[in-house]
Amino acid sequence: MPVLSNEDKSFFKANGYLVKNDTLTKEQIDAAQDALWSGIEADRKDPETWINAGPMAPVPGSHPAIRATMFDSPIFDMAEELVGKGLLNQGGAGPHLRYPSGQPEWSPPEHGHLDGYYTPTNGVPEGTVGRFTIAVTIYVDEVVPHGGGFTVWPGSHLKACEYFKDHSLLSISGGVGKDIGECKEITGPAGTVCFWHGRMFHTGAANSSDRIRMALIARLSRKDMSDILFEEPDDIWESFPALQEV
Ligand SMILES: O=C(O)CCC(=O)C(=O)O
Predict the structure, then answer these.
(1) What is the pLDDT of residues 207-241, one digit of tens each?
(2) Which class in CATH covers the domain with range 6-243?
(3) Distance from the CA of 208 to the CA of which of 31, 104, 126, 149 falls in 20 to 30 A?
(4) Which ligand 1 atom sits closest to the C-alpha of 217?
């Protein structure tokens, strides 16, 4: 049964992202938090020890409680509602934690990036660009304002798609976007999910709160991605048939 409305789909098309709440049960949230805490190098009962703790990914995305957030919830089906039924590979979400900085001052991030670009530290081979169709950021704990929220630049997916029609994929150093407008920090209770277009400029904001930002991120590709990798169609929604009529 479809979960998303035409209004949701229109919002995604225009803005490049869509936030939905209440996508996980309390049991799924508790199990995911327990899994993350099994690998966090800090004392769960002592928030003082959470400041600048680690690691970013305390357990792999293959952990059953982490995998369940995508596949025992409506989330994967919702991603397919935005792209097209049966079109996406079943990629799971991986933990992406942001620990409290211990600094009360906060300012918004200066720039976002596209994923898949080489930087000296991210492991992407120089001279290559990775691509995916749609991504999902799932919160398994509440994320308050200035609490390390996943941050998007609304509408930047349209600018990026237009740009690549007559520029090389490699022409954006490190995938970093300049002059792409105002950013929006995504906040919300556990079970909040943000779907975002594969060409959405994004980043993680600083965490000035006293909570660990517990997010899982999945990047999902169309099954035929290797065939359309270098295609820049006039209609940028050609690879999202579910949005053609919206
Ligand atoms: O941690 C976040 O909210 C964003 C992470 C990010 O920018 C990325 O994985 O490319």
Answers:
(1) 999 999 999 999 999 999 988 888 889 999 999 99
(2) mainly beta
(3) 31
(4) 9
